Amino acid sequence: xxxxxxxxxxxxxxxxxxxxxxxxxxxxxxPAVQGNFxxxxxxxxxxxxxxxxxxxxxxxxxxxxxxxxxxxxWIGLWDRANEQYxxxxxxxxxxxx
Length: 97
Hints:
Blueprint: H1 2-16, E1 25-29, E2 37-43, E3 48-49, E4 54-55, E5 61-65, E6 71-79, E7 84-93
Antiparallel strand pairs: 1-5, 2-3, 2-4, 2-6, 6-7
């Protein structure tokens, strides 16, 4: 009897958190580039940069956890030598109601 009650409480606890797996992870494919580049992420809702700029490691893509649900983020690849963006993309993740 105690096991059955414990199982019911565990199931109730699991269903209470269903759908709240965590923040999404994005993987952005970047074009092939040579030189020194920075990955820059703009938080549109905060009207500012989402963290520091990160040196691009030339792997062909960049993987990161989206900082927060329900916001738009702009990801740019900054060419330090030419002082211009060579890639840009908007992403957003929104929870279903």
